[in-house]
Design a protein that fits this description.
Elements: H1 2-9, E1 13-18, E2 23-27, H2 34-54, E3 70-75, E4 85-93, E5 96-103, H3 110-136
Antiparallel strand pairs: 1-2, 1-5, 3-4, 4-5
């Protein structure tokens, strides 16, 4: 599913992170470069830090991380705009986030990327439901 997502969305690298531990539990089949993992992991730190300040649920006093959670950070590269990257985070499930590294030239298709991420989320939910059903047997 991750390979289909990155191929159909022109994403360079994607990680599925556990937001609490910041450990990635899945990635696409491209080799993992440590600097990419570190950038994506640090984005989760930024999200948590900002959520601690602005994302507290007033009723329950808990951190707000829900289906609307997302973050976009543009990284400027010394080589010029053609080498610039976008870090894109989207909530996938209660404590799971998809963090993608996308060439800025491809990010103008954000609506397509969002559509493909929504299909990815639906596929994950089906896997989770099938797993829950199998565990109950």
């Amino acid at each position: 599913m991750m390979d289909n997502l990155i191929n159909n969305s022109k994403i360079e690298k994607a990680f599925l992170f556990d937001v609490i531990s910041k450990i990635y539990i899945a990635t696409d089949s491209n080799p993992v470069e440590m600097k990419d993992y570190e950038l994506c992991s640090e984005l989760i730190d930024v999200l948590i830090d900002v959520s601690c300040i602005y994302g507290i649920d007033e009723v329950g006093g808990t951190l707000k991380f829900d289906k609307e959670s997302s973050s976009i950070i543009r990284l400027n590269h010394a080589g010029g705009a053609e080498d610039s990257k976008v870090l894109y985070l989207r909530e996938v499930d209660k404590c799971l986030a998809l963090v993608c590294l996308i060439n800025e030239r491809e990010f103008h298709k954000q609506h397509l990327i969002n559509y493909n991420i929504d299909r990815f989320k639906e596929g994950l939910k089906k896997i989770f439901a099938a797993t829950q059903k199998a565990l109950k047997k």
